[in-house]
Amino acid sequence: MVLFMKLFRHLLDGQSVDTPTTMLSRLLKEHQAKQNERKELQEKRRREAIAAATCLTEALVDHLNVGVAQAYVNQRKLDHEVKTLQVQASQFSKQTAQWISMVEGFNQALKEIGDVENWARSIEMDMRTIATALEYVHKGQLQSACS
């Protein structure tokens, strides 16, 4: 059908008519030339697609690397902060232990003061009892001496 259309077109254009073999040979060459052009175009598009995919991949990797690098920097900062916090917590724990020891010592001193105060009261009561007894004895001696 295609061969017939080409033959008819040649006749209308006033060109000489080739033999079927010549025409077939020419059509085959044209077909091969077009096919080669398509292959070259397809190969060119394939190379362009590969280049575009490579650029996209590099851009994505670069973008991810920036994020990974930032995450690494943040992790290092966090590690440093954790170490600092651990040191400070240890120092605070030691300071708290010292404060607790001081408060316990203060409480003990207060207890001792309370004990001394009770002892002093006890001594004072004993002294009053002795003083009262001595007064009583003294008054009794005075009364017996007078009588």
UniProtKB/TrEMBL annotation:
One Pfam short name: GCN5L1
Entry keyword Magnesium: no
Sections of the chain in a coiled coil: 24-51
Keyword Coiled coil assigned: yes
Parts of the chain that traverse the membrane: none
GO cellular component: BLOC-1 complex
One GO term (biological process): endosomal transport
Keywords of this entry: Coiled coil
Catalytic activity: L-lysyl-[protein] + acetyl-CoA = N(6)-acetyl-L-lysyl-[protein] + CoA + H(+)
InterPro entries assigned: BLOC1S1
Family per similarity comment: Belongs to the BLOC1S1 family.
Protein name: Biogenesis of lysosome-related organelles complex 1 subunit 1
The organism of origin for this protein: Astatotilapia calliptera
